[in-house]
Write a structure and sequence with these properties.
It is built from eleven helices and nine strands. The chain has 288 residues and is α+β, with helices and mostly antiparallel strands.
Length: 288
């Protein structure tokens, strides 16, 4: 059954739109337009595999140069060769042929290019969108696999967080619980230690106000993290239940690890030892 998804960004936020496509594990292209700017986002099985926008795309060659994968002279030479070929070859293909980069360098740059475009896209608060199921306007040799949840979390980190949080969490007495994963779909979610610790407080009993007050991170920061988790679809509003005593933060974190294991439907997650927590490794795929 095809997904009939189209409308205006004023009515449906981009995080909501991305979540709908991810939840349905859909493949196809999401077209988003604002004024004369158009962005296309490709999906495969609910994951983002590519994105481009003629006016927004970060220049691949510049990303490679900024990461010291190539020099300025090598970039200039490749751009000149591309012009002489009358665009019959892509810049990445030319750089690989000249042995200035390898395929891993190109994959890394394409991933960064797609991610930066998606992060900027989340700042759009107006425009129209339409999802074209099982349709792709171009064939891309290099694709990536990026989870919608990670795109939303990182994109929102770069926005005006507190205002976003207040608009998202309008009821301080509302309670939230962890959202169940869709059947047959595991989630590739990366959280830093602060996000993990706030998620440990989400138990379906404590209100937004209680979580923000009890969090050692401070009320404002805890609220912005809660808002991100909600917009990413990782927590959902629940009916309030009697508040229980779960002891200290370590006890709550251990309890959360077990719940999170069931939620992600993947193998058990080891207790984190650094500031970045990843439930699985994001895979990069290449379509020949």
């Amino acid at each position: 059954m095809e997904l009939d998804l189209q409308g205006s960004i004023e009515r449906f936020t981009l995080p909501e739109i991305l979540q709908l496509i991810a939840a349905g594990r859909k493949s196809g292209t999401l077209g988003i337009q604002r004024d004369d700017s158009i962005v296309m986002v490709y999906f495969s099985g609910g994951e983002i595999v590519y994105s481009y926008g003629p006016r927004q795309t970060y220049h691949l060659g510049q990303l490679l140069k900024d990461s010291n994968a190539i020099t300025a002279d090598q970039l200039d030479e490749a751009v000149q060769l591309q012009a002489n070929e009358q665009n019959s070859k892509r810049l990445g293909e030319i750089l690989i042929e000249r042995k200035y980069i390898d395929r891993a360098d190109l994959q890394s740059a394409v991933r960064k290019q797609v991610e930066q475009l998606l992060y900027s896209l989340l700042a759009w608060d107006s425009g129209t969108f339409k999802f074209y199921e099982n349709q792709f306007p171009t064939e891309e040799e290099i694709t990536v696999r990026i989870s919608v949840e990670n795109v939303i979390l990182e994109g929102l980190r770069r926005m005006d967080e507190l205002n976003m949080a207040r608009e998202t969490l309008t009821d301080p007495d509302a309670t939230f619980a962890m959202a169940s994963a869709q059947e047959g779909r595991s989630r590739d979610v990366k959280m830093d230690s602060d996000e993990w610790n706030v998620l440990a407080l989400v138990d379906g009993r404590k209100s937004v106000r209680q979580i923000c007050t009890s969090s050692p991170l401070g009320s404002d920061k805890a609220m912005t993290i809660l808002a991100k988790l909600k917009l990413a679809g990782l927590i959902t509003k629940s009916d309030p239940r009697p508040t229980g005593d779960y002891g200290n933060l370590e006890t709550m974190t251990n309890r959360l690890a077990g719940l999170f294991e069931n939620y992600l439907n993947v193998r058990p997650v080891k207790k984190p030892t650094d500031r970045t927590i990843s439930t699985s490794v994001v895979e990069t795929s290449v379509e020949d």
